[in-house]
Amino acid sequence: MNAFRLAGDMTHIMSVLVLLLKIHTIKSCAGVSLKTQELYALVFATRYLDIFTDFISLYNTVMKMIFLGSSFSIVWYIRRHKMVRRSYDKDHDTFRHQFLVLPCFLLALLIHEKFTFREVMWTFSIYLEAVAILPQLVLLQRTRNVDNLTGQYVFFLGAYRALYILNWAYRYFTEPHYVHWITWISGFVQTLLYADFFYYYLNSLKNNVKLTLPD
């Protein structure tokens, strides 16, 4: 465990807490993409298949449970909660997210480190996480005006991945034979997808104005 990894994990948890705060307290999911949340639920479900079989550490197990529980809870809130679901912007959240799943799965079958069921599923989750934010970014671009909590959620989510890149760089220079090209390339792709949002988000903070995305 190093400072970059810990900061990345805490930032990831912050993104989840911000989103749950909005949904649970305000009883609103306006500006939140159900499609992205469903993709993240699938990401964690396929990545943490070892949660009940392989014990690494208490920290590792707790983190897995947090991300699994929170992702499925958010999906449930948006789909089933009688008040929250009324604010879901179905008309703008139309990104066909199912078309991201099959290419990621096929890529995992073709490019992986070891051809076992668990390894292929883990690799699939890495590829899918890299593009899971796309429906959310498209939704925000269509609605343009982004409320503070939704903006913070997306920012923290992008910052988590950026910090993980620093974690990988640190481990590359401090740990022998630490090479994971699949994770690294997917992580860079994921971070690049946030670049445009970061630009406008930081500009809004600098100028103390409401975040507005261009058409």
UniProtKB/TrEMBL annotation:
Keyword Membrane: yes
GO cellular component: cis-Golgi network; endoplasmic reticulum; endoplasmic reticulum membrane
Membrane topology: Multi-pass membrane protein
Keywords: Endoplasmic reticulum, ER-Golgi transport, Membrane, Protein transport, Receptor, Signal, Transmembrane, Transmembrane helix, Transport
Subcellular location: Endoplasmic reticulum membrane
Signal sequence extent: 1-31
Transmembrane stretches, start-end: 55-78, 99-115, 121-140, 152-170, 182-202
Example of a GO biological process term: vesicle-mediated transport
GO molecular function (one): ER retention sequence binding
Keyword field contains Transmembrane: yes
Coarse class of the protein's main subcellular location: endoplasmic reticulum
UniProt family annotation: Belongs to the ERD2 family.
Record's protein name: ER lumen protein-retaining receptor
